[in-house]
Amino acid sequence: MQTGQPLVGALLFPVGFCLLYLLGFDLLTGVFTLVPLALIDKRPGVRPRTVLRNWSLVFVGNFAGALVVALMIAVIVTFSFTEAPDAVGRQLGVIGESRTVGYAEHGAAGMLTLFIRGVLCNWMVSTGVVAAMISTSVSGKVIAMWMPILVFFYMGFEHSVVNMFLFPSGLMLGGDFSVGDYLLWNEIPTVVGNLVGGLTFVGLTMYATHGRTAPARDGVVEAPAKTTVG
To answer: Cellular location of this protein (predicted)?
Structure first.
């Protein structure tokens, strides 16, 4: 964002995602896509409540981490809240307004647009998660992740975890919108869109074309190698 050039920002943005994946941490958009497949594949011990528990824990963890970072950024751009926000801080507030009340101004059409942007976002993000599995080298995984994440950011799609940082920081920095605006006109529809996009267009599609058609060994379909969920 500080570059003033959207493409440059998009080129830099995947750094955090790649580090998260390589370190084996969980991202909400990733578990939306992959965890339900264990239930569909009838893996031992996996039940609907197992999936919901995983989603809940990852949501809380991601949200808590995003709030901590949002607070630290707010401190930095206001000199510990002793001055008005600098240019970066003011921009965070403006983005928060445009992507909450901006959608609300269009009513149902705005809500549908927000939802579709959430769908398209996790189609890209989860494609990066799955694409990273095709390589065994760090460089190969990074390249495979970088491309779809760059596309999602440059296109301005809605990512629920990014927004867990973006909008709370905007509120702390004087953005002209409320917590209710943030939840109703961004976070909740974005979470639903991310779930639908990742699970439908990546998880179930890949499972149908790869998991269910994997060659059998001694009459048993091989389970995919265990991997972390980005």
So the answer is: Membrane
Q: What is the CATH number of the domain that holds 51?
A: 1.20.1080.10
Instruction: Tell me whether residue 229 is in a domain.
Output: no
Domain annotation covers residue 180: yes
Cα separation, 195 vs 208, whole angstroms: 18
Q: Is the dihedral of CA 161, 165, 170, 171 positive or negative?
A: positive
Strand spans (E) along the chain: 216-217, 220-221
Nearest Cα to 205, choosing from 40, 54, 46, 22? 40
Asked if the structure places residue 126 within a domain, the reply is yes
Residues in the chain: 230
Domain that includes residue 197, residue range: 6-213
Please state the domain count of the chain. Answer: 1
What is d(CA 65, CA 228) in angstroms, rounded to the nearest whole number?
A: 19
Per-residue tokens: 172: 């702390």
What is the per-residue pLDDT for 219? 47
191 touches 160 (CB < 8 A): yes
| C-alpha span between 50 and 42 (Å, rounded) | 12
φ, ψ for residue 15, nearest 5 deg: -55, -50
pLDDT digits (tens, 9 = 90+) for 97-134: 999 999 999 999 999 999 999 999 999 999 999 999 99
Residue 226 lies in a domain: no
